[in-house]
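Action item from last week, closing it out:
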Amino acid sequence: SQLFADETGLLGVSLIEIESEPAEHREQGVFIANPTLESPWLQRFRAERGAAFTTARFSRWWKVKMADDKKPKAEGGEEPQPEDESEKDKLERQPAVVHARLQTGAPYLIGGQFGRGNVMLLTSPLDADWSTLLAKPDFVAFVHEWLFQLASRRGERNISVGQPLVGTLPPSDKPADAGTPIGFVFEGPDGEPREAKLSGEGASQLLILDDTSLPGVYSLRRKEPADEQRLPGKAVVPEKNKPVKPLAAPGRELFVVNADRAESNLTPLTDEQIALITADERLQFIREGREIQAAASNELPRHELWQLLFLAFLALLVGEVLMTRKLVRGGHATADAEAN
């Protein structure tokens, strides 16, 4: 009963009321916003990949409120104390993340983690009364991927950029309480240590690294004395003093963060994407190579000014020589006349 006392459950999301199509969307309908499908497992359902997932129309959905996980303060401004420490640990949960939204901005798919498990919420049920998703060919594939994400393990060794790294804290290194420093760090591809965050309680305590923006090989290892000066926000050790150790060493767990392959996608852009890129007229889209040559020739000046400037410079030099000879001859003629 204590777990659901705040009516937000495992995910930290409360259902407020049922919403329906606004008046301005009744003719065109409300669909899933394609740009919000940024999660790696949802990108296969984007419109540019030929999926019909975003063509499903929604007539009703639940309005939700995301919990900020802040407990109300008691009288006097003090935080309410749980009955025991174990109760406090059991009520801790990770913040929920919106994985997909409707075109109205309302959340459609919300996910989060509680302990070592995954929790997801659809604000519109999977039936034909609230949406047309069941009639789309991507419905079965979406449910399969959705269930696969719910059942997947958190401690994956190969992940994509932006996903958190999760390692298991050895039982012998369990901290006494949440304030005890953790003796482990994640070492990134650049060789710099990154502070590990402790999550969970009891036998489910995990080490998590959220900052995986840099692709490459990461290693989870014990903290060393030199790491205290190399952690973010602290003094930087000179490059020559940084320890160099092999990745595969005893006491190290290796992880791989794969680069985002979307930048290497060779699929031609659609007309809608081209219109979006060139909307502000700051970019010009070129379809053929000859258009590049034509654009380059149009940017060149119509007349080559350097040739005219060079001829003018030569004329100035020749004029200077002629003027000097004339002055010299005039001086000799005056001197001869005075001598006679």
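Closing note: Confidence is low (pLDDT under 50) at residues 1-5, 69-80, 82-91.
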